[in-house]
Write a structure and sequence with these properties.
200 residues, alpha/beta, Rossmann fold, six-stranded parallel β-sheet, 9 helices
Amino acid sequence: MNILWDFDGTLFDTYPALVEGFVSLSQQDLDRSEVLKWLKIDSKTAFKHYGISEDQREEYKRLYNENSKLYSKPFDHLEKVLAEVENNIIVTHRDKESTTRLLEKYNLLKYFTEIVSVEEQGFSRKPHSASYEFILERYHIDMVVGDRDLDLVPARKLKITTVAFQNPNIEADYYIDSYEKFIPLVLKPFQEKMQSPVDR
């Protein structure tokens, strides 16, 4: 079993850090729940909605990386799921250094075969499929797990099974709110489906 994972909002609850970084960047007293709603679509849409220039993206990355040290942590029961998977691979818009640092902090780096930082490695941002295609050249991927539609769009394009995490409003093959239920509700049914004889 090989799984491709998004990082922010999927493996780690980094939205508090992302929201605080965005509010700091805006230099306004924004409604944090409203900011979260826009970031759940994607940061480019949030920038546009609040009239923030894309020229400030590097500063945004710096701010949310700083906030990540204070606010970010892995979702509960995640390690048990990672331990069940042969190859866990991350494809993220976050830089590789901060991703690795957070995984090391919680002793989770050992579970990951590869980390792809989309922009650092020269790929177009998701939902462009180039970073996923790069991974598919090296590994067979059984499923993709993400919390936003842009994580799953390239998977659907490439005919890979999709899992929506804590987001019932996007198109996916499976939906999960907690990793406590991931093995019985996603992994086992998927494995049984793959092992069942093809209908004739």
